[in-house]
Amino acid sequence: MFLLLWLTMVAPSGQAATNDALIDAAKREGELVYYASMNLAEANGIIGEFEKRYPFIKVKLHRTGSEKLLTRVLTEFRAKKVFADIIQTVEFSMHIFNRSGVLARYLPQPNALYAKEFKEEGFWTTVYYNAYVSAYNTRLVPRSQLAKSYDDLLDSKWKGKLLMEGTKADWFVGMLQILGQERGMKFMRELAKQQPSPREGHELLAQLVVAGEGVYDINIPVSSVERIKERGAPIDWTALGPVPAIMVGAGIATGAPHPNAAKLFLEFVLSREGQRLMQTPGRHIARGDLVNEAAAMLKDLKIVPVNPALAEKLDEYAKQMRGIFGG
Q1: Are the C-beta atoms of 218 and 117 separated by less than 8 Å?
Q2: What residues pair up with 87 in beta bridges, in sequence order?
Q3: What Cα–Cα distance (Å) separates residue 178 from each residue in 25, 172, 174?
Q4: Residue 13 has pLDDT above 70, yes or no
Q5: Closest CA to 87 of 108, 101, 70
Q6: What distance in Å separates the CA atoms of residue 270 and residue 296, rounded to the nearest whole number?
Q7: CATH number of the domain bearing residue 82
Q8: Is the pLDDT confidence value at 9 over 50?
C-alpha cells in the first residue's frame, strides 16, 4: 500500500509526479535535449522508443566522448548557460557534476529498485554498467591454457604478448579498489614487467586481439568483446577474479530548460522497458527486479561497482598508471 501511494505522489520539487500530470507538463514543453557519451546507435535506439511512446516530445541528442562531455557541461554550467535537460555519462563525471551542483535533485519512481552502490541518491542512477574483463584470441589460447587469476598474468609465458588500454585510469582505479592499495600497486608494477603494449580504444584493442597482435587484452569491457564476437571473430573473454564495473548514470540538469520532459525521459530509461533496451550483449543493468535476467548474461561474474567518489583522485591515479605502464 505504501509503495502504491508513493508511486502516485505529486512532488515536483524532488520526487516523482503522477504519470498523467508529468505527461501533460512534458507535452507542453514539447522537446528535450539529451547529452550522452554512449554509443550513437544505442542512444538513437533509446530515443526512437521514447519518441514512439511519447510522440509529442522531440529529443535532440548531443553525443560526444565522456571527457569532452565533462568539459562542455561544466563550462556551460559555470557560464550559467544550461542547454542540457538529461545528462548521461560515466560515473566519475556524474560524481563531479553532482558535487559541482550541475544535477538537480529528483527521485524517479523506480529508485528503490536500484541498490545504493549504483546511484548517488536523488541525483543520478546507473542506466547500465560495463564490467572489465580480459579478452583472448580463441585460436591462439586454448581454454585449457587460459589464465585463471590475475596473478597468472605474471607468468613469464605471457611476457610481450599482452595488450592493454593504457589511456584510461578507470580500470586501474577499480583494480586498486578490489586488491587494496598496497597489493594493487605491487601487482601493477609486476604486470608492467610483462611489457604489455598500451594502446588507445577498446574497439581497436578487440580487433588487435582478433588479428593476433596480442593473445590477451587485459582490461576490456565485456560489451566490446561481445560486439565483435557476434560477427564470428575468434575472440572471447574471461574473468580472472572479481571485476571492476564502471557505471554509466543519468540525471537531470539543474535549471534544465525542459524539466518535465527530462523527468519523463529519466523515468523511461529506468523503467523495465527502458532497462531491457539498455541490456545489450555484454552490457549489464542494475535494476533489482531484472537481476535474474541480468545474471544469466554475467557468466557468474563477481561484480565490484567502482566507487564514484574516486573521481576526486582520478588525475592522481592516471599519473600513477602512466608512470608504471608508460603511454
Answers
A1: no
A2: 35, 251
A3: 45, 10, 6
A4: no
A5: 70
A6: 20
A7: 3.40.190.10
A8: no
Residue 210's domain comprises 130-242+301-325
d(CA 31, CA 187): 50
Q: How many domains does the chain have?
A: 2
Q: Do residues 152 and 165 make contact, with C-beta atoms less than 8 angstroms apart?
A: no
- In this predicted model, what pLDDT tens digit does every residue of 24-48 receive, in sequence order? 999 999 999 999 998 888 899 999 9
Map grid coordinates 586454448 to a residue. Answer: 142
In the predicted model, what is the mean pLDDT of residues 53-79?
A: 96
What sign has the CA pseudo-torsion 117, 122, 89, 262? positive
In a domain, 1, yes or no: no
Give pLDDT, residue 279.
85
Burial of 311 (C-beta count, 10 Å sphere; 0-12/13-18/19+) = buried
| Residue 5 confidence (pLDDT) | 31
Burial class (CB in 10 A: 0-12, 13-18, 19+), 138: middle
In a domain, 5, yes or no: no
| Four-point Cα dihedral 125, 166, 318, 244, nearest 10 | 40
